[in-house]
Design goal:
Elements lengths: L2 H19 L6 H8 L3 H7 L3 H17 L8 H16 L3 H10 L4 H21 L6 H24 L6 H21 L17
Length: about 200
Amino acid sequence: MTDPEFEAALVDAAFALGAQAGWLHVSPAAAARHAGLDLTRARNLFACNGVILKKFGRQADAAALAHAVADGSVRDKLFDSLLRRFDYLQPRRAGVLALMRVLPFCPPLALALAEMNLVSMGWLLENAGVNATGIGGALKKRGLLAIWLYGLRAWAQDESPDLTATMAAVDKALARAEDMAHRRSPSSSQPADPASPAPQV
């Protein structure tokens, strides 16, 4: 088993354990035991729970960026990559929902996840051809994060096999953000960036 394969297996085990026993019982060692993985190797690759979440986010980003649409508007590309990210979450749904339930009681973890998600939003923006650097990029990342979180709330309640409600929520949030961007720069000949400014959704 290669390191990437081992990491993916331990991350999946952590989310399975989180769904079964709650995230307060999750650790790299506990996830390794749950999946029958080597503890020494787990220790070398996972120093703490934060590494589990960071690698989970990177894997979700990889799923979102893989086979991304090359044509279409910025909005189309962002919609596609956001939905690909939800597709990655779906098989790990119970574990993700368990993590979401514990976040209100663990502010440091919630803050760390928010920072990780901001980094992820930067990659999704760049993939759509939007510059995510500097102060303007920081605002765009926060705007896209607001869209992601709006979609995440819908996803948490969406039990349809094709994520119909999630898709509708993401499309609605992108449309609202794009409309706001048009209103701020009505004379611009450039396509509106739906991730800027941050929408109130």
